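Worked problem 6 (solution included).
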Amino acid sequence: MGSIFDSCNTVSEKCGKGGSVICNVIGTILPIAMISVGAIHIDDCPAQKYICIYLIVAGAFAILVTGVRYLESMCCSSNSGTPPLPILVVNGVLGLFLLSWFIAGNVWVYGLYGKYNPTDKTADNYCKELVYVFAFWIITTGYILLGVYVLLVCFVACCCRRR
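Solution. The predicted structure is:
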C-alpha cells in the first residue's frame, strides 16, 4: 500500500518540482484537516460516533506513514534498493492497519448514508453535516483516485505492450 510520499515521488519524476510541491502540500494539509475536523467535532455525530474517531486516527496514521517513508528515504537507503527488514515490517503493519481502518471507515460512513439528520441536534440520528460530508468525500476521493490510478496503469500497460 502506497502513501502520499510514494505518489509525490512519482509526481516529482513526471511533473517536476512544481507538481511535487503541490502533492506534498496536499499530503500535509489533508491529514491535519482530518485530525482537526475529527477532534473539534468529536461529539457532533451521535448517529455514528466512530466517524470522528475514524478521521482522527486516519489523519494521524497518514502523517505517521509519511514520516516513516521520509525516514526510510533519508537514513535507510541502500544500494540494493531494498529497505532493511525492520522498515519492511513497520510498513507492512502500518499498511495492514490502514487497510483495516479504511474498511471500518467505509462501514461507519457509508452505513449512515441517507440516514443521518444534519439539522436536529436532539435527534438520535444527528450528525453535523460538515463532519459527515468531509468523511464521505475523504473516502470517496480515495476510491476515485484508486480508479484513476488503475486506469492509468492499464493505459500504460497497453501502450507498452504495443511497442
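Discussion: The chain is about 75% helix and 0% strand.
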